[in-house]
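Annex B, item 7. Sequence and structure tokens for protein A, then protein B.
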Amino acid sequence: MLALVYVAGVTQLGEAEADSLRTPPAVEGDVEDEFTGLKWALLASDRLDEAQEAAVTDPEYASELASGAPDPRTGELSAALATLSEAAGEFDPVEVGGFFDDLDERLGTDSASWLAVMYPAVLGSLPGAPFEAREAANQILLTAASYDTTQPDSPERPWNAEVERPPREEVTELIGSGRQFVYIDPYNNAGDGSWIEVVGDLETAETVSVLVPGGSAVLTSDNFDIYYQRAQSFVDAADGELAVVVWAGASWPSGWIEESWASWAAVASESLASFTFDLRSQIGPDVPVTLVGHSYGGAVIGLAETQDLAVDRVLHIASAGMGNDVYDPEDLDEPCRPRYSITAPGDPISYIQGMPYVPLLGHGADPDDFPGVKNLYPGYLPDAPDAVDDTGTLLIDRGISGKEVEGVHSHSEIFYPESDAWNNILAVLLGQEPELDDDQPAPIDGC
């Protein structure tokens, strides 16, 4: 059985062996007539707001749009979109952004948003496409996915003609919720789903963080809402200064057996590294970006740091490790990048931090001991009568008001709002000076 699991890990790792990023196809001819013709052929209105509303509120229409694909025979624009759709992850997201900037200049500033209604399945998962268009496309895709789950997946028979299938609950609840997904795939992870979600306002935020969740980061897990609530607590406290992107845009392990393997992190880290450049191109060069990983997410950001990244600082929260086979600052692409870590005393994650190297197994060095890392003070939970945990439950009702952040439950308590740990995490996200723990790793020479 162990041999089979190992082979599965090797297979997963093979997905990480990507070729160099491709340049998007050029659209050099006059495509205005083609663009106008597509709008008339596919959409219910010639006004963008009405077309978007119709697609989101009419499930059958949304399903029809979601299943549509650009026909390369229609013209140069459709051919380019078809190419981008067929191999979305193979293109440089920054250059894909330039592709849409060029379309805006030629077709009008809302061209990507129009295309998001016409072809939501293309825009919704296309790295480099404008975030606003991707969010609009994914609202249509959610409506379509909810509707599609109610439809029979087999020919009608006398015994199933009157049977009603309920919509998929965790998908249906998101329709009209106001949550902002720049990627969501309800069918990835063997049907459990994956996502990338913006919490806050990227256009006005003075600093941005990318939060990579721990294990079981799928739509069907409680973690889907818990990490949203955790991100929202930081955004609310920052009063507009901060936006957080919850990044779970890859296949993800669930359970301690799968989470002990580095293969998922190896694959996810490549997509994450690419996403940081996508994000940077959309928010501009001057907004600081903090890359944050919790639990298994720490292993993902650790391996991402062995690659080229567009981030300014890194934070490990109760992290599984610095990444498989990462034991020295020289293993990282930028050893002197500001780097922080926080793990509470007694957190079970400490049993796997810093395991000796085994191919594909374990997650490298202990971030709390890694040279150059600054360890944050975990401290205590708040003792205010209205203090809550990361799901909104009163701490006083749980009998843990004011207690030290330590032990088995500290793996989650580290996120409880207004705790010392939470305050120090928020300080890092805002680029402020956090309170440091007494024990600190050695600095890196030359940094």
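Protein B:
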Amino acid sequence: MQLHNLKRKTPNKTSTQVGRGGTRGKTSGKGTKGQNARAGRKKRPEIRDVIKRLPKLRGRGVSSLKSIQSKSVPVNLGDINEYFSVGDTVSLETLIAKGLASSSSGNIAVKVLGGGNLDKKLTFKGCKVSESARAKITSAGGVIE
């Protein structure tokens, strides 16, 4: 063993480099002043601003609280009693023809309600009927199909 072959048991300790010193120098590789030079910089991506400006087209149209089902046109038994004669058939087409229901609003269903009295025997086709109207129609001798 000779002196030039000797090695240390532990290596030299080197200090950890910080932004102020070491090989980076002055601005520590962060350029000059401003937002980009600050610690923990988080710049908002430009595309995010474009996305935020776009209109949101979610859900079902303007109001998601609106029902998907089409609303039915309400017609009272009292009105049907005035416009129809004995033995007639009450349907969506006949109600539109007599002016009791309108198809302009896009509604395709009719619901017969129990308002008023019915004293004629009528046949109801393709109409929704409330419980009170059903009782009045059957008591007058009418038929619901």
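Comment on protein B: Strands lie at 73-76, 89-90, 110-113, 123-124, 128-129, 143-144.
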